[in-house]
User: Fold this.
Amino acid sequence: MAHAVISCLHANLAAVEAVLADIDQQGINTITCLGDLVGYGPQPNEVVELMRQRAIPTCQGCWDEDIIDGLNACECSYPSQLAERRGHLAHQWTDAEMTAENKRFLASLPTSLRRDKLLFVHGSPNSQHEYLLPDMNAFAALERVETAGAETLFCGHTHQPYVRELRGGSIRVRVQHNDSSSSEEQDMTLPMRRIVNAGSVGEPRHGNTQATYVIHDEATNDLTIREVSYDVAKTCQAIIDAGLPEVFAWRLSHGFEYAERADDASHVCER
Amino acid sequence: MERWALVSGLGGDLEVYEQIQRELKTKRGLDRLFVLGDLIGPKHNNDALLKRLQQPQRGDLPPECIYGWWEEQLLAERGYRGDRTAEALRINHGNDAVEALLASVDTGHMAWLASLQFGFIELDCALLHGSSADVGDELMPSSSPLILLDRLTRLDVNRLFTARSTQQFRLDLNGGAIDSHIKDLNGEHNQQQEVPKRSVIGIGSGEMFSLYAPGSDHIEFVKVGVKPVSRGLGFG
Assistant:
């Protein structure tokens, strides 16, 4: 059976509708969403209501968490003061725009979902704010999956889709105790694990304007990254009409986020 | 050659601290004394030791302290950690233990305890109570090497000194590798990463402490009053 995983919708209704239509067209009935339903985009209520209406199991993303808990993350949320100012504007606008009922829905979302050996999170099992980038230290990446007791970890947050298979790993250690003049050696064979980043539906940052998501065929274990076209200009116009920073429309129309990549992606938020 | 003394788990025991200071006077070339948390504990009134740490006596190697698990519990219960309280202590030892801890430290010491840092980075070494993940993280020889490597990687250090487990040990990561196959919209590629030569060192607790020479990477496990066992080659 194939299932689809979507992430980082960011209040972009046109993109969400296009991706859901693409999933429906392929006859896939099981969809999991990795959060960030809101933030940056102009239609937070519409997107949340669509997800509720479709009853799509969803994890809470960092933006969803911030709307509920307030902006109390440590400095890791934004890589620059400029990005922080824009982010705060988007936060305030979204906070004012969203209905109480939709906020309650965001507050009700779990931080992770699990189906057998598949684990679904927004950032990492440690935090909704941690970035698992494709070039992250491979041992640290494996630790995130293994410590969480999963075989395949689905995440989002980076807005860059990828499938990373970690395999053939081993670690050799030598242990010396205080009560022994000798030392002992041990070898640990590491299990094969996968990290699958679903990219972003509502704010792609992979160098292309198309929305991305992934399809996982559980029978064959194949993973496919899908790109879906949608009416980018319509969302860009809605961003400007809503009074959100115009740079959000500009970067959406270019498919990357100018100067907004975290400097220290391995940082774990200490909120 | 620079040498450090690494101590933890004093638990308010001034007598043990004085024994350690006396022992350190017999060791050559010690430059610094790091006290890696758990200065306080539930078994003693902690005030005398806290005063001595803040006001070293003449001849003491001046202590450089960080906070440990017991300080974290006290600071949380006293309102220095936002909304958090001493939940871990309460769950594991009951409310009486929390009350006993509160009574064992004069509130006049709280500002100093609150000023202590989570850890020190010295050269390529992290000096911590637990680990880079949490002050309560217990790293020991039986910990998964994957977790140990992660804790080293988080701070990008070659040596991580830990005290939480109370054990004295040295674990060297000295071999191995992992392959990555990455597929994205630009194509597919492979990476291989080797295990870096890094170490996690448990410094012990109370009268068990450690001496470390960063220049030679030599660790010596010490117990107060006990002569160290010769470990082979050395200089006479």
Chain B has seven helices and eleven strands. Residues 232-236 of chain B have pLDDT under 50 and may be disordered. Chain B has one domain: 3-223. The first helix of chain B runs from residue 14 to 25.
